[in-house]
Design goal:
elongated, single chain, mainly alpha, 0% strand, 89% helix
Length: 53
């Protein structure tokens, strides 16, 4: 459960950074943040599918 909360916290931290990087013209950094967000969301999906079994 703790890891799940950590993933959610990291997603919340990264989402505003994506816009920040885009506004600064740092597309590659924005993409890295988006990739990490997606990776974390995929981990959360794994947790949910595991919990529902």
């Amino acid at each position: 459960m703790e890891e799940k909360e950590q993933l959610l916290a990291e997603i919340s931290e990264l989402e505003p950074k994506v816009k920040e990087f885009i506004n600064k013209g740092q597309a590659s950094e924005a993409v890295k943040c988006q990739q990490q967000i997606l990776k974390n969301k995929m981990e959360l999906v794994k947790f949910k599918s595991f919990e529902s079994r």
